[in-house]
From TrEMBL:
UniProt name for this protein: ABC transporter ATP-binding protein
Gene3D superfamilies: P-loop containing nucleotide triphosphate hydrolases
Similarity field: Belongs to the ABC transporter superfamily.
Keyword Protein transport on entry: yes
SMART domains documented for this protein: AAA
Alphabetical UniProt keywords: ATP-binding, Nucleotide-binding, Peptide transport, Protein transport, Transport
Organism ancestry: Bacteria, Bacillati, Bacillota, Bacilli, Lactobacillales
Domain of life of the native organism: Bacteria
Length: 295
């Protein structure tokens, strides 16, 4: 694999002012660096408020970084002319978490998927939209229906079709299965894997669901309080977690076998405190396994 996206020292600070004029700062992303390879799925996991969605959106320039640099195929985006930046951002798309609010309720499925193709002729845009809708399982008269006539899983399929219709190279999947039933989640994951193989897509897959993350990801990055605390190939992370926060996430994950669940809950990691010293060192402890040493 070769590198598609590289993020260096990304930080994002949100500021707000109350009615008294006092300014509050929240460090949502704190000095995060990582790469995403062509054709891979990098899973990004962490609890709510860990900064994972803010980080993902910053790659697409949906959130402006306070500091840091983002590279696409070796080109630093901030140094490119605006027209070149826009062309690259066309190669980056997003699948949103909530399929109910992500789609314009007044447009049909066909119109929704044609919308990103506004620079093409209507006939060509319609052809491409119909083709990708068929790939995601929306066919026949259904393409002329508006979103309220579809189930949650079908709406997410339309959202996926919108994201891939212009053949991007990178897609940010922002918890795309969290609002769906478990059986539908599996179908969506399989669809994403199929599309990745067919169109050579790279994914940053954000989720708090470790079972989903494990199934779809080649590597997994773990975020805690805005910092990247561990990064490793999927099997390595699950079999050999090193950071105390990663251990807690894995220990708290639901386990189907009741006996194994009881054993997991008795592990000392449940009571282990999480350390995140500012001077903690980011170190490679095994091939492609990095951890922020917290003790």
């Amino acid at each position: 694999m070769s590198e598609l996206i590289r993020v260096e020292h990304a930080s994002k600070v949100f500021t707000s002012k109350n009615w008294q004029g006092n300014v509050t700062e929240v460090q949502a992303v704190d000095d995060v660096s990582l790469t995403i390879q062509k054709g891979e799925t990098l899973g990004l996991v962490g609890e709510s408020g860990s900064g994972k969605t803010t980080f993902g959106r910053s790659i697409l320039n949906l959130e402006s970084l306070t500091s840091g640099r983002i590279f696409y195929e070796g080109q630093e985006l901030s140094e490119l002319p605006k027209n070149q930046q826009q062309a690259i951002y066309q190669q980056m798309q997003i699948i949103f978490q909530d399929p109910y609010s992500a789609l314009n309720p007044r447009l049909t499925a066909l119109e929704l998927v044609m919308e990103p193709l506004m620079n093409e002729s209507k006939a060509e845009a319609r052809k491409k939209a119909e083709e990708i809708l068929a790939v995601v399982g929306i066919t026949g008269e259904a393409i002329h229906k508006i979103p309220r006539h579809f189930s949650g899983g079908q709406r997410q399929r339309i959202g996926i079709a919108r994201a891939v219709v212009n053949r991007p190279s990178f897609i940010l999947c922002d918890e795309p299965t969290s609002a769906l039933d478990v059986s539908i989640q599996a179908q969506i994951i399989q669809l994403l894997l199929s599309l990745q193989k067919e169109f050579a897509l790279s994914y940053l897959f954000i989720s708090h669901d470790l079972s989903v993350i494990r199934h779809i990801s080649d590597r997994i990055a773990v975020m805690y309080q805005g910092k990247l605390v561990e990064l490793a190939p999927t099997d390595e992370l699950f079999e050999n977690p090193q950071h105390s926060y990663t251990k807690k996430l894995l220990a708290a994950a639901p386990i189907a076998d009741p006996k194994k669940a009881r054993e997991a809950m008795t592990k000392s990691v449940i009571q282990e405190s999480i350390h995140l010293a500012s001077e903690a060192e980011w170190r490679e402890i095994a091939p492609n396994h990095f951890v922020r040493l917290d003790k």
